[in-house]
Design goal:
The longest helix is centred in the first third of the chain and has 31 residues. With 430 residues, this protein is mainly α. It has a domain of 102 residues. The chain has a two-stranded antiparallel ribbon.
């Protein structure tokens, strides 16, 4: 039995940790050398910086997790620029920090996931996986789009970090880690509190739960239905002027009470619901910060109307979904392929297709994990495109490209696996 399946080898091997550390250090060094020294001429970075420096409320949806972390960074690292206090440098450094950590996480995911792809007779894949993970992490970190967001005050590197963290814990769960259900539920709620965009991880978590067992899948589906009922019921009752506090208490009491009384088998669903809710508690920072009337106070979240305005991104245009059977959608998907080329370049991006060619040779568990990652990529690319629905002009695509950084996470892993497969076949030929 080789190192892929030996029970004493541990979830992550030493070579994978070393590769992750070297990847994070290399990416962090590049980010530090190219970091924006002050307020960059970028979209909304100034708003975010002021919100962080005064612990205020940034642009909708407020980004409470990022604002708290960025605010702490300005206090821990009080830099000066040309003799003047420069909180922007500390916040820019925070973006670089999470961008470097994300690159290291991708190296871990490439190495550990790669060990699932092969059959039992494969040897030496641990070192090959470390090399491929190092390359994939740097391809992600140093790509033009990701790099542009990692050296300024923006929220996207934190989002990417949380996405890969959920994927790693999801892989740990399918490997038999029993607390995985609870950790993933909390992380999902925490991610949604960080940014509503994190809902794209919902289908991935359902796929992971279905892999673990039918019982887990039913529990997660039941928890999803609880959230749907709570949301729809709340919107209905608020039309009649019900107090939002009373609405929240009644909704939680009814959902938990009915679950505990009528069905013991559905109690795990209630626990998942509660842990997601617990993870979303940072959202309460928004009305608390707004009550102090900071210089940056988007939406005035101290009132119920202002709070709903902030978390629902009320200042932006409502989502208009594109017809997926239209020519416009095909053109938008072509625009996404161009973004892949901008991020990775065409030669490197083509390596991400190699795992598809070797799919029949993967182990059964490897095919399942590749399917989970493929689902995540489709949701984060083609699925997100239906909601973003951008025009194909240059200016619009420059603004919209950041919404697809989550898909670049998945594709960077595919590139790493493609390199791993090429190294494996080259070794056998030599």
């Amino acid at each position: 039995m080789n190192d892929f399946s030996h029970p004493k080898s541990g979830f992550l091997q030493r070579s994978e940790w070393v590769a992750a550390g070297l990847t994070a250090l290399a990416a962090g060094l590049v980010y530090w050398l190219t970091l924006s020294p002050s307020i960059p001429p970028a979209y909304c970075s100034g708003q975010l910086l002021v919100a962080a420096d005064y612990f205020g409320v940034g642009r909708p949806p407020g980004y409470p997790v990022w604002t708290l972390l960025a605010g702490l960074a300005t206090k821990i690292f009080p830099f000066h620029y040309h003799g003047y206090p420069n909180p922007a440098y500390a916040v820019n450094l925070l973006s670089a920090f999470f961008g470097a950590l994300t690159a290291g996480e991708i190296a871990l995911l490439v190495g550990r996931g790669g060990r699932l792809l092969f059959s039992s007779e494969t040897r030496g894949a641990s070192l090959n996986g470390a090399v491929a993970g190092f390359a994939a992490g740097l391809c992600f970190a140093l790509g033009r789009i990701v790099w542009s967001q990692a050296v300024i005050a923006e929220t996207h590197t934190l989002t990417s970090f949380l996405i890969v963290l959920v994927l790693l814990f999801g892989l740990r769960w399918v490997e038999g880690w029993s607390p995985g259900r609870w950790v993933l539920a909390f992380l999902f709620g925490f991610g949604v509190a960080a940014t509503p965009f994190f809902v794209v991880m919902g289908p991935v978590l359902l796929a992971v739960a279905a892999w673990v067992s039918k019982r887990e899948f039913r529990a997660w589906i039941a928890a999803t239905l609880m959230w749907a009922i709570w949301f729809c019921w709340g919107r209905y009752l608020l039309r009649f002027g019900m107090s939002p506090t009373l609405w929240g208490l009644l909704a939680v009491a009814v959902l938990f009470g009915s679950t505990a009384i009528f069905s013991r088998s559905s109690r795990p669903a209630a626990a998942i619901f509660g842990l997601v809710l617990l993870g979303m508690l940072p959202i309460l920072y928004l009305p608390l910060a707004a009550s102090f009337n900071p210089p940056m106070n988007s939406g005035d979240a101290r009132t119920w109307e202002g709070f709903l305005h902030v978390i629902s991104r009320g200042q932006y245009e409502r989502l208009v979904f594109v017809d997926v059977f239209s020519l416009r959608y095909l053109q938008q998907l072509g625009g996404y392929l161009n973004l892949l080329a901008v991020q990775f370049t065409w030669p490197i991006a083509s390596i991400g297709l190699v795992p598809c060619l070797f799919f029949p040779r993967f182990s059964p568990r490897g095919r399942r994990w590749f399917g989970v990652m493929g689902l995540g990529f489709i949701v984060a690319s083609a699925g997100v495109m239906t909601g973003v629905n951008p025009s194909l002009d240059l200016q619009t695509m420059l603004v919209a490209q950041v919404f697809f950084i989550a898909s670049f996470v998945y594709y960077a892993v595919f590139i790493g696996w493609g390199l791993l497969l090429l190294l494996h076949n080259l070794k056998h030929r030599l």
